[in-house]
Amino acid sequence: MDTKSKGSGMDYWKKIVILLCAGWVTIWVYRSALSPAYPQINASLGGNITDTALGFISTCYFFGYVAMQIPAGFLVDKIGKKKVLIPGFIVFGLAALLISQATNIQMIYIGSVLAGLGCGSFYGSAYSLTSQNIPKEKRSFSTAIVNSGSAVGSGLGLILSSFLVVQLQFPWQTMMYITVALIVVMLIAFIAIIRNNKEDAEFLAQSEAAEAAKITEEAPVVEKEHVSIKKLFSPKMLFAYILYFATCYGYYMTVTWLPNFLGTERGFEGAAIGFSASLVAFASIPGALFFSRLADKYMHKKVQFIVILELLAAAMLLFTVQATNSTFLLISLIMYGFLGKLAVEPIIISWLGENAPKVGIGTTLGVFNFFGMMSSVIAPTLTGSISDATGSKVMGFYISVILLVVGTILFLLANLNKKKSA
């Protein structure tokens, strides 16, 4: 089976890993670029915009992103990954341009929804490409590399926005122009690298012929029967969904509001805001790689890993808001990144694969991801509303801590009951 691209010595799957990692970098540069510039956006639009209204920018993006997940997955299966990715990123680029020309907050909202819809094309396409093309023995580590693009992009977006917009006082629209430039590069790469439908079909035919025996062994797992609602929302599964909602809530609240919190409530200035906030993203990369390998080594202790990591992450969020000096605050942020969402997420997904109903695993994963991404719609606006009402975002952090602790306890109890009944 020839896995190399035409005229190139590099394996196709390696190009896919690099391409998808760069895709996440581009998406997350955009996602993290606006929050450090909220004061500048407010000033450019008249100076009377509330924190609730600013937080709603992120909510609009994630509303579009969540809404696109199921349709994009259907379209990937129906018309192919390339035909979904390219139009999606064109919409993404047009949305960033629209935001850069905004004369009022409503235009930013519309652009954010469109950006979410455009980026929503990426998830299903990306992980279809990884599952189809990356060799099984290299898939976990390769997927970790792909996922690390989100952390790199988040860190770069925060640092660039804080340095260029906050410190050097470039117009906040500068970050949107940078995003558009990155999107154009990605579109060229998608066109040049990703196989078209005919080439994909030929590749799949070769793969099926080469791995016929393995496919025969795995075939009974793929059934036409649908998972029942009772199994889909059994206590064990429901509490896993709640735990993931709580995990994502803390992460997306932090991604959206941490730069503003550091600047307005903890005295950080200029590039220091972006650098400090980016520590969460960069610390998550070694955390994800380290704990995923550890959990694979001690496969029967996944629940213990999940519970310990979630409680430690909650503690780090608590320490962040209670820190009395910048050194303690920065250490807490680094540890939250190392122990938080990106570290525990692969272990939760692995646990889910082992414990979900054998029939309808795709549906289970869809519900699981829906619960997690719904938190990204709620957290930014709710935290902004709390800030408007109290004059501080500290309560938003406390809510994240409470959700994490409650979700972890429920998850632990559900798994303890399982062991007792076994």
Instruction: Please tell me the overall pLDDT.
Output: 84
Give me the Rg, rounded: 22 Å
Topology-level CATH name of the largest domain: Growth Hormone, Chain: A
What's the architecture of the largest domain, going by CATH? Up-down Bundle
Q: Structural class per helix/strand content?
A: mainly alpha
Tally of structural domains: 2
The CATH homology group name of the largest domain: MFS general substrate transporter like domains
Membrane topology: Multi-pass membrane protein
Keywords: Membrane, Transmembrane, Transmembrane helix, Transport
Protein name: Major facilitator family transporter
Subcellular location: Cell membrane
Description:
The chain has 422 residues and is mainly α. The chain has 2 domains: 206 residues, Up-down Bundle (Growth Hormone, Chain: A), CATH 1.20.1250.20; 200 residues, MFS general substrate transporter like domains (Growth Hormone, Chain: A), CATH 1.20.1250. The protein is built from 17 helices and no strands. The longest helix is centred in the middle third of the chain and has 31 residues. The termini are far apart.
In short:
This is Major facilitator family transporter. This protein has 422 residues and is mainly alpha-helical.
List keywords for this structure.
422 residues; mainly alpha; Growth Hormone, Chain: A; 0% strand; MFS_Na/Anion_cotransporter; Sugar_transporter_CS; membrane; MFS_dom
Topology diagram in text:
Blueprint: H1 12-33, H2 38-44, H3 51-79, H4 81-100, H5 105-133, H6 139-167, H7 174-193, H8 197-210, H9 212-218, H10 229-232, H11 235-265, H12 271-297, H13 302-322, H14 326-339, H15 341-355, H16 361-390, H17 394-421
Helix pairs in contact: 1-5, 1-6, 1-7, 3-4, 3-5, 3-16, 4-5, 4-7, 6-12, 11-12, 11-15, 11-16, 11-17, 12-14, 12-15, 13-14, 13-15, 13-17, 16-17
